[in-house]
Amino acid sequence: MESVYERVKHNKYRKGLICSILLFFLLLTSLALFVLIQNEEEIGIAVCNTEQCFSTAKKIDSYLDRSIDACENFYQFACGSWIKNNPRPRDKQSFSIRSVLTENVMEQMIAFFETKISYNDSDALKKAINVYSGCTDIDKRNDIGLHELKRLLQNVIGFPIMIKDWNSNSYNWEKKFVYTDLKLGSIQPFFRYRVDHDKETNYSTYSIHIYNTDHSVGKELLDQNRRTPRKEREYQDRIREQLKILDIDVSDSQITRDIDDLIMLKIRLANASLIKSRNNDASDAKKMSFYQMESKFLNQINWFKILSTIFKEANVNLTRDEKVYVEDPYYLTELGNILKNTSVRTLANYIALEVVNKFGVATVEKLRKLAKDDNENETLRKFCYTTTERFFGAALDYIYMKKLLDANVLFQIREFIEHLKYSFKLTLKQNKWMDNEARVKAEFKLNKIFGRILFLSSITDENDLDAYYSELGFLPSQNYLTSYKKLVKWEKIQSLQKLRQDANSFNIISVPTDMFTSLKSKTIEIQIAAFQPPFYHHSSPSSINFGAIGNIVAREIMFGAKIDDGKSNSKINESRKNYAERINCFKTQYSEFKEPNTGLKVNGTLTLQNNIAENVGVQEAFTAFKIHEALRGKIEEMRLPKPMDDFSMEQLFFIAFAQLWCNNDSEEEIKYKIESKPTPPDSIRAIVPVQNYDEFAKAFNCKLGLKMNPQKKCTL
């Protein structure tokens, strides 16, 4: 039997144990409350409550479909509501968040164009508006333009179809090539050339590159190397319609013979352009002097005479020792034989029709409308704006900056660009898989990518801009063809003079309308109009902007980058040893991916370069964001307010990335892109790169084995 002492002792022990347990839970609860309070205070401090942040949060949230699990289908999660609320217009096959922005900017600029010219407007702007006004004047373009075009074809170019008793004795196709290239907008029949960066000098200088011309018509006339009567009839009908507009009165039998000869020439040229691919030759361009070209290509083409005559017009002297890049030696070998064995009449008709299809379509509205089935959605206003922007791109960017953007917004853009460039430079320095050549090339691209914006935004005096366009003189709106001839010649001289310029210096030569304009060196120049949602959000957390426009930059500077193969390094790590296996991983992964709308599989080989660039790009952009965050601290890395306050900085980065690709293409368009484009459909571009990235799974807490966090990932 237990004594009183023992009972008292046990009771004290039980009371002590209970008190200890209570005290422990009290301390644990206090600690939990303290952490919760601290977190709540931290979250409260980190929320951005500005008007712009509320606007950004509302816009990004309006694209999300929160009913979708981000770990199962991140594209639908990020873009589901945008797709639902933005049905594709009936007249369009392709429709995306990017095309909507492009259309909006174009309409904004067209509205600006269609206002009356102010006395205080710069000369550059007045010239641009005159060109746009002349282009939209249909009556004058058809009247004066058609008359001038016929005179040009008959008296200068030489068009046997429209000239009775045409004499071929004095005809020289090489002289006509020089004329159409210099005077009519770089019309280059039979072969093309361009002034482009020289990779042997790390892209610091320029050189001449000679390559195939566009033989898409000839390829269309072939079906598995056989002539197709239906396509040939369509081609004949198209030419007859053009001749009808030109009011050419020639016997039908002669036209038929001429067109048949043209078809044969186009097929021969198309076959010659396919030799390299049929031989499975993926070799790079060959660099050789004009002397070496003459000995290698034993044919009737005087390469040096043609090109030296053209460049002399821009006060650039060539010598026979000048090194040029030959992109396709097979084609150039065959080209001389084809031209030698083709009648002069057929060569003359070929060149004249090139003038009709390019210069004529650009200057005569009736010919443009006939050809508009190639781009039936392009209205006259859009066509004329795009043409004007081609020549006055620098002026229009300047106008957009100075007249349509708030000065504070422009300051923020410049500041963000500097931060972005600095973060990417540090990212490239710590990159361990790129070889030295790739790193140099990437840094070159990074320096060029924002050159246009930084240069134009620094101009304070419009006289500087006017001086650039002063050589054009007066551009009459009443005679669009005359203005167009002046513009294309001026543009040509600018491009030729680049050959002797420093490639690292910035040249404000005009570029096309696209927000992200691909240069021939596979770099891009980002235009100022791209600095708006979804690419850039003013006065918002930089994680969003690194996720959006930062990813565009990363993709471009990584495109075509070579991995370090270890030849210059004895300590070869595992990723370098297994480079081929890693590349095959990407090929297999994308080839097995089914596009959800069509069920078609992607061509992992065709899209390989882009796929690698996008996978590596999103990782490099994320690393650059983290470097930026570490350097700048948490001050500006605030969360968005409601309804986006439940997303972390890392999650916002990936959401911004995915929303670049919100898209509502038709099934026909998706099928076309899968079969012929070197990039996969947009939904796949949003999904696969983050599937392969552990930081995405970590940000969204996706368990291993879920669709967005697969067991097997492809990485470099």
From TrEMBL:
Coiled coil start-end: none
Cofactor(s) required, per the database record: Zn(2+)
Residue ranges occupied by any Peptidase M13 N-terminal domain in the UniProt entry: 71-452
CDD domains named in the record: M13
Entry keyword Hydrolase: yes
GO molecular function list: metal ion binding; metalloendopeptidase activity
PROSITE patterns recorded: NEPRILYSIN
Domain Peptidase M13 C-terminal: 521-715
Gene Ontology cellular component list: plasma membrane
Keyword set, alphabetical order: Hydrolase, Metal-binding, Metalloprotease, Protease, Zinc
A Pfam family: Peptidase_M13
An individual GO BP term: protein processing
Family named by the database record: Belongs to the peptidase M13 family.
Protein name: Uncharacterized protein
